[in-house]
Amino acid sequence: MKILIVDDFSTMRRIIKNLLRDLGFNNTSEADDGATALPMLKAGDFDFLVTDWNMPGMQGIDLLKAVRADAKLANLPVLMVTAESKREQIVEAAQAGVNGYIVKPFTAQTLKEKIDKIWERIEAA
Amino acid sequence: MEHADDRSKQVLDQAEQLIMEMQEGNEEKTAQVLAQLGSIRESLLYQEVGKMTRQLHNSLQGFREDARLDSMTAQDIPDARQRLLHVIELTQKSADQTLSAVENSMPLAESIATEAGELSSAWKKFKRRELSVDQFRELSSTIEKFLGDIETDAGAMKQNLNQVLMAQEFQDLTSQILKKVIDLVEEVEGNLVELMRLTGGMFGKPESADEGSVSAIEAEGPYVPGTKAVSENVSSQDEVDDLLSSLGF
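The joint structure predicted for all components is written out below.
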């Protein structure tokens, strides 16, 4: 499975990449904001997107909306991993069609749980 | 006070004259005295405004000439910016060092685990006397190699752990730097309050700024405990999950 990790901080991308590798996901790519990520998603065959919210250039929430608006990407599972913790933001992300929402700081266990849950729901559908 | 007494006597005289002229029905004179009274009042007002202007000017002048304020704007604030950038640098460096050490250790731990697993099953076979002499010879050389590998890998892992340990020194340094910046922010706050006190009384209270009416949802960065808008933020992943499940997730 091919996963794209989008975060403007390289340390956070490395952490997520290592956690994903530990969960058995070895095929990951990285982008540092939505504007870089979107063409990668359109060009590549990604199966899963993990994105931050607050980034320079294109924000994660706008990337999510762009993904949902794109016919080819509309069904791509999107997991938000972000420090944005306002209730209205979580509601906004949910309405935009996010599949999971993790607030930073987070644990390896939380990441595993949310990814498992997303796949469970997709397989059940 | 002599000056003020003179003036009130002058006003009193004019008032008496005003009543007299009015009683006598002398309209022209009445208007004249009224105008004189008005001009006394006006000059009083001008004097007050003049006094206040001078006070404001002196206060602001004093504020401007405050050497501390000068060094604050010229030096301390650019300094603080530099300090904060340095904090970012130090924490970034520490995170990079730690992540590298961890990434370098992972494959070592994985290969030890794999090799140990293989050896363990071979060892069990040996104990069940299922190994031929050749197989045993092979096992024995594998064990020998494994022990050598462990020695090298454990040494490398110990070095990596030391690197993680040393990478934590940023905490001490950044705390000291941040404390200095906090002190400066407090001082600037004190000065701003003083400036408000000096000017606020003269210009009246400004309309209070409209707080937090952001039209679109904007990214605000991490929630910091002890800052405003506590109830608007979730404080744990459990709360996020509850909120999402209330939305049908």
